[in-house]
Amino acid sequence: MHGYLDMIEPEQIPEYEPILHELRNQSRRMTQIVEDLLTLSRLEAHVDLPPERISLRSLLEALRREAVALGQGAHVITTELLGHHDLLGSTKELHSAFSNLVSNAVRYTPAGGRITLRWESEDNGGRLSVIDTGQGISSQHLPRLTERFYRVSTSRSRETGGTGLGLSIVKHVLQLHHAHLEISSEPGVGSTFACVFGPAQLLEPLALAGAP
Ligand SMILES: Nc1ncnc2c1ncn2[C@@H]1O[C@H](COP(=O)(O)OP(=O)(O)OP(=O)(O)O)[C@@H](O)[C@H]1O
Ligand SMILES: [Mg+2]
Fold first, then answer.
1. What phi, psi does 198 have (nearest 5°)?
2. Domain ranges of the chain
3. What confidence tens digit (pLDDT) does each residue in 60-72 have?
4. In angstroms, what is the span from residue 163 Cα to ligand 1's centroid?
5. Which of 69, 100, 107, 198 has the smallest number of Cβ neighbours within 10 A?
6. Under a CB-based contact definition with an 8 Å cutoff, are residues 151 and 157 in contact?
């Protein structure tokens, strides 16, 4: 479908331009939904994820760069590294889960807002939080946010181009890492999405490992 749509030149049939534009948008959306559903079923099959060492310093920096690119510089984005542990898990899956939270923060925070990416860890556990000063979510929606296709306001979400599968993917990725998602939010003030990991998922940094 993408291929055929790309072959049609809007200049040749100007009166169909808006229709063509809509068709292209919808076909992109369908592709995204199919990809997200495939990701979900792969995660539900309880794949064995490779246990890798993930450095939070570089991960936070990569996420910060993604947020800046996605928001085209409209937000103030900061990172806070408040723990020295590395994380044990699948780099690919965890990065994709955190990216989901970051893209939500960017999309649901108006220009000029602040987004903070924070890693905190102690020996008994760690948490990666994505904190925004965006539109927030009222409390009745919070328990349902990680359901498939659940979106707070369909019209507003459609404008921002999501599928409503992002947070269910996040939940599954975290489950596979024996971690969970904590959400707190206040309408008009902002939201915090925290990924909470147990001690088994934390690693001493390489330089310190084995030190007395
Ligand atoms: N940081 C946030 N601030 C305000 N609302 C949010 C935030 N993150 C998520 N939401 C709400 O939760 C809903 C579900 O989020 P989810 O990431 O699952 O879907 P989505 O962003 O609409 O689509 P996508 O599948 O592309 O991620 C969103 O539609 C939005 O209404
Ligand atoms: Mg999303």
1. -85, 170
2. 2-44, 52-203
3. 999 999 999 999 9
4. 9
5. 69
6. yes
